[in-house]
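User: These chains co-purify. Model them together.
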Amino acid sequence: GQQVMQIPQYQHVQEGEDFTTYCNSSTTLSNIQWYKQRPGGHPVFLIQLVKSGEVKKQKRLTFQFGEAKKNSSLHITATQTTDVGTYFCAGRGGNKLVFGAGTILRVKS
Amino acid sequence: DGGITQSPKYLFRKEGQNVTLSCEQNLNHDAMYWYRQDPGQGLRLIYYSQIVNDFQKGDIAEGYSVSREKKESFPLTVTSAQKNPTAFYLCASSTTGALNEKLFFGSGTQLSVL
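Assistant: Joint model of the two components:
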């Protein structure tokens, strides 16, 4: 069945450093969504990518969808303490939305 | 204030006991979902419903049951057949269940076994 692998599982960065998490799907995706879950909280939708090679930005966050629509990345420039949490990708293939395991981001101030 | 309300926040289950987790939404969404979250794993779909009085099994439906008698409500029962119920349970909704819709999540219920 469809699988979505997400790496790294965990990253601890110094405030001001950049951060990137990657998702790879075993099958071609129709779209990919990204969610953020703060510690003790629930996932909150960040963005959806649909087109091959699409790049979207939200302030310091840059989201990319691969040309083959099988991989995606989230890059945070100059992390802040407010960025802490778990970032999940969720890939849609067929009628299923499959979540990656998430990347836990910790930021040292 | 529109949103999804899950209750209780924490729940404890005794051996052989069925427990029911509540999920209510006032977003007027047709589609509702139940996910299970375990440490180090992605969210896994238990059940979903796109219309009142209809629901479908997700990837890990064994040991769980649901009902959708009202548009606003989608309770999940964790039965005694679920041998490893300890997890964080998240209810979600979307407008119609179409493939390009984002999910809105409730604040979750942490279920633990006594």
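Chain B has a mean pLDDT of 94.
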